[in-house]
Please model this.
Amino acid sequence: MASICVYCSSSDSIADTYPPVARALGRELGRRGHSLVYGGGAVGLMGVLALATRKAGGEIAGVIPSKLQDREGIAYDADELIVTETMRERKGIMVRRADAFVVLPGGYGTLEEFMEVLTLKQLGYHDPPISILNVDGFFDTLLDFFGELREGRFARKAITDLVHVVSTPEEALDRIEAVAARDGTVS
Ligand code: AMP
Model:
């Protein structure tokens, strides 16, 4: 069982393609007995994901700064709710509590969170599995750009040496579980 941190959109206005993927990931997380660490909001893919995880019996821990909590409330009676003063503090807690990361489609917030765990991994500060769920090619242009960074030697490692790019929630969790079984990092 792993504590899996998911970064994903806070928007309720995105295309209908995406919520079912967040729902399927939540269901699968709960079904496999993993727990969820996430942004704590009831909005966008975060809300869909949290509700589905909970319904499938998975524990959810929301980590939210007080400013956002006041504005949007918290999703679905999280088993644990950690309210922080700042966004920075909140991101640190999410990273420390996670054994692995899954990145779903999202905007600036999701990208910022993803870039931080990616950079920490490249620099060797941590070594958790990170899966990017590339729903309908959502991340293709970003992945192409990462390829250019590597080609130009701006990046020390190829993106595929740092993350698993997957197309289904099952695959995302399979990759995480395989790494955990290999390294003995997750029970
Ligand atoms: P974005 O991709 O810009 O929608 O931002 C989503 C990501 O940033 C999530 O993974 C959250 O951790 C964080 N975040 C952004 N907005 C919120 C919010 N309103 N409530 C909770 N977390 C948020």
Q: What stands out?
A: The longest strand covers residues 60-65. The mean pLDDT is 93.
